[in-house]
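Hi F.,

I've been meaning to write this up properly since the lab meeting, where we talked about keeping a consistent format for the predictions we share between groups. The idea is simple: the sequence comes first, exactly as it goes in, then the structure tokens exactly as they come out, then a line or two of notes. No screenshots and no reformatting. I'm using this chain as the first example so we have something concrete to point to.
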Amino acid sequence: MRGPARKMKITMTVAGGNAFVLADDANGATVQDGFRPKQTRILQSQALFRAAYKAGLARFNLENRLSFVVERTFGTVELCLNFIAWHADQVPVSGTLTIYNRSGTGQTSRALANAVVSDIECVEHVGVSCKFQYTVAGNGAWQ
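Output, unedited:
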């Protein structure tokens, strides 16, 4: 649940240590409700000799996905349209995704190494505001 005291920041750090800011509540790139993590695991179905059913074997290959929407507001319609036109080309393809959140009840920080931005979409544009949805995937566990 989003409250007025929450400060969330999401960055993608590429090789060389440069951090690209995908979202920052403190600087006008606000993370909207709908923060959706998902994890899938590889499952191998194996037929067993004279068994009525196959065995399900966990292979522990984790894929973590995260989708979130960021809203931005600009001073003019032209600035907003320019941002919409070039933004996807500016976002790094891969790196370490870092999520930092601070609220009145505490703070948390998580990282997903070897993350890939698999989808960037402008899901809404109204006047001087736009909303972008990002989907990021990474193999391995959150750190």
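Notes:
The chain has one helix and eight strands.
The CA atoms of residues 8 and 101 lie 4 Å apart.

If this format works for you, I'll send the rest the same way.

G.
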